[in-house]
Structures are given as C-alpha cells and as structure tokens.
C-alpha cells in the first residue's frame, strides 16, 4: 500500500484492490482524478464537517465512479446534501464497518466527529481527524488546560482497550497551539506502539511539524514527513 499526501489532513491510500481517501479538503486534484479512474473500489472517509476536513465536492465523485463507498460520522447524517447518497455508512464512536476488503472502526474526537482505525491487508492505519490535546496553555486558564488534558487522555484510554498497536498514524502537529503544540502527539505515541507517525494539520508550519521527529524516535516510532502534495511513502 502507498500513502499519498494531498493537503492539510487529506490523504489517499492506494492498495492493489482498493483505495481510501481521508478528509479531502483541497489539493491533489490530478491525483484524485487518476484514483477515480481506477477500476478498484474507493472508500471516502470524512471525520467531521469542518471545511478543512470536508469538501462537499466529494459527493460528486459518485457520478464518476459507481463502486465508491462513503463513511461519515453519525453527527453529519442530518445534512441535506447527504440525503439519498448511495453506498453511505454513518459511524458513531464504538461502531464499525466491515466488508471483504477492510474494516473501519470509529473512535472519538476531542473536537467534532470521530477518528478512524482502518484494518486492511494486515495493516492498521489510524487517522485522527481532530482528535488531539487541544489546549492553548499560553492563553488558557489552568482549568481549561486540565479539562482539555482530561478529555484527551480519557479518549486514549478508551482506545487502548481495543488497539494494541498501529502501523501508521496520521496525527495533528499544529503549531498554533503554542509551546505545547506537540504534547498530544507525544502522548499518543507514548500510549500506543506506533510503527510510523505521519504529521498532519500543520500547514504552513512545516519545520514545526518536523521538530517532532526526535520525539517519535525516542519512542521507537519512525517519523515520516509528507509536506508537499503528492509526497508518498510505502506502508
């Protein structure tokens, strides 16, 4: 399988028998066009409805490809634009979808929607969506920081009951959070046995995202920075 960076939190996975697109926002239009032309099935996963994770343009792809499957969080099921969409599944935290190619487990988020764990071809692939330790220590009160920390760690502990190891994790490393911007990512690789860590949600602070590399190495995790549309890595 190959993991291809589109933009922001958007990624494409190309496998021999299927493809998966996570949180398409924009970028990589030519890459998407080629993926839609493949005869293999495509799975389009959306973690939540923030416009930097969900572009309604993805709904038009059904007109170009008949073997396309959409997976959305339950909280988006009331959107008028999704009404009548074929081959759509809504997942809530703790729910899953499975067919003869892959399994998708939905976990929680500390913002909106869900995060996803995909199991396919013997690999486990995690896309965090907006799951992170979202606090701005430089601006927040101690109580706000504690609340954010508690909510995040609670979700990690919930996930640990079901997840033993992760081959590839796509996870936010967002410098806007200030001095503790890597805290959530470090807590994540500290809790799980992560083979490869791929940062996301970092644009345009590429160098800030790259600063997580030595932390990942400390936990025995390979760090792979995909920073330009089309950058890719073999899983």
Give an overview of the whole structure.
The protein is of the alpha/beta class and 235 residues long. It has one domain: Ribonuclease Z/Hydroxyacylglutathione hydrolase-like (Metallo-beta-lactamase, Chain A, 4-Layer Sandwich), CATH 3.60.15. Helices cover 20% and strands 30% of the residues. The protein has five helices and 14 strands. The strands form two sheets. The chain has a seven-stranded mixed β-sheet, covered by helices on one side. Strand 3, helix 1 and strand 4 form a beta-alpha-beta unit. The longest helix has 19 residues. It is globular and about 50 Å long. The model has no long low-confidence stretch (mean pLDDT 96).
Element layout with pairings:
Elements lengths: L1 E6 L2 E5 L4 E4 L6 H9 L4 E4 L22 E6 L14 E4 L4 E3 L3 E6 L7 E6 L2 E5 L14 H19 L4 E8 L10 H9 L1 E8 L5 H5 L2 H6 L3 E2 L8 E3 L1
Helix pairs in contact: 2-3
The secondary structure category is: alpha/beta
Assembly of the depicted chains: single chain
- CATH level-3 fold name: Metallo-beta-lactamase, Chain A
**Which spans of ≥5 residues are poorly predicted at pLDDT below 50?**
none
Q: Give the end-to-end Cα distance, rounded to a whole number of Å.
A: 5 Å
List keywords for this structure.
235 residues; alpha/beta; Metallo-beta-lactamase, Chain A; seven-stranded mixed sheet; 14 strands
Write a concise synopsis of the structure shown.
This is Metallo-beta-lactamase domain-containing protein. With 235 residues, the protein is α/β, with parallel strands linked by helices.
């Amino acid at each position: 399988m190959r993991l291809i960076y589109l933009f922001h939190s958007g990624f494409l996975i190309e496998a021999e028998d299927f493809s998966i697109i996570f949180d398409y926002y924009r970028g990589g239009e030519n890459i998407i066009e080629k993926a839609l032309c493949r005869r293999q099935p495509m799975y389009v996963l959306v973690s939540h409805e923030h416009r930097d994770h969900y572009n309604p343009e993805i709904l038009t792809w059904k007109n170009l490809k008949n073997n396309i499957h959409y997976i959305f969080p339950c909280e988006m099921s009331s959107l008028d634009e999704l009404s009548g969409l074929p081959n759509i599944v809504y997942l809530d935290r703790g729910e899953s979808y499975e067919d003869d190619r892959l399994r998708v487990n939905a976990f929680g988020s500390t913002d909106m929607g869900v995060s996803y764990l995909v199991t396919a071809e013997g690999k486990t692939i995690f896309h965090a969506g907006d799951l992170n330790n979202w606090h701005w220590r430089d601006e927040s009160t101690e109580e706000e920081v504690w609340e954010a920390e508690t909510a995040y760690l609670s979700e990690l502990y919930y996930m640990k009951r079901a997840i033993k190891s992760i081959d590839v994790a796509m996870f936010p490393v967002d410098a806007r959070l200030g001095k503790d911007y890597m805290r959530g990512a470090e807590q994540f690789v500290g809790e799980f046995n992560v083979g490869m860590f791929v940062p996301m949600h970092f644009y345009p602070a590429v160098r800030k995202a790259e600063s997580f590399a030595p932390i990942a190495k400390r936990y025995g995790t390979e760090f792979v920075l995909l920073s330009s549309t089309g950058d890719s890595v073999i899983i």
